[in-house]
Amino acid sequence: MSLVNFTAREITCKIVYYGPGRSGKTTNLHYVYGRVPESRRGRMVSLATQTDRTLFFDFLPIDLGQISGFTTRFQLYTVPGQVYYNATRRLVLQGADGVVFVADSQARQLDENIESLQNLQANLLDHGVDIRGMPLVLQYNKQDLPRELILTSADLDDALNFRSLPSFPADALHGVGVFETLKSISEQVLKRLSQGTTA
Ligand SMILES: Nc1nc2c(ncn2[C@@H]2O[C@H](COP(=O)(O)OP(=O)(O)OP(=O)(O)O)[C@@H](O)[C@H]2O)c(=O)[nH]1
Ligand SMILES: [Mg+2]
Q: Which position among 5, 10, 53, 60 has the lowest Cβ density within 10 Å, counted as fewest Cβ atoms?
């Protein structure tokens, strides 16, 4: 849940990167960490297994600077994608202001993507949140892989994009689409916040 401190003129929002195992959620955060100037980011905390699978979550706080006179901070989290970590996923999702769904573009991962999206919907519902009301963007990652292995953005939109959400092709390993995705979700979250406070 976003925290607005009117005295200090600070806003803090929580963005959660969600998606199936090995889709590239942690890779997105690593890229952001590497590109945001040190003065604008905190320490990245990763709780991972020895093989780099996220065990609990990754956490990266970044500072977007001044927006409408408020210092705006985003806390980026990833969930563990592996199916059996659902309790942890649900916990990390709690209080999210926005979600980035990182899909794996490989054709053989399509069922995992669909299952993970359904799992997101169910876990949000457990927190009393309707997915249709949650700021959400889709990222089609691993578009750098050979054409015969992956689905195009258009195919993935057909299969996953149930309400014309913003969607971005990406190669998070090399940074393609990473900041476009982050910018889109940030804008949606801030828009929601401004609507909420003026309502
Ligand atoms: N070719 C390619 N490989 C990628 C891309 N993004 C991530 N990877 C690789 O995919 C593997 C999994 O990436 P992670 O970022 O750890 O995946 P994750 O979604 O955090 O996985 P979990 O923590 O298990 O949920 C790693 O070997 C990455 O280097 C991409 O855009 N292209
Ligand atoms: Mg991970």
A: 5
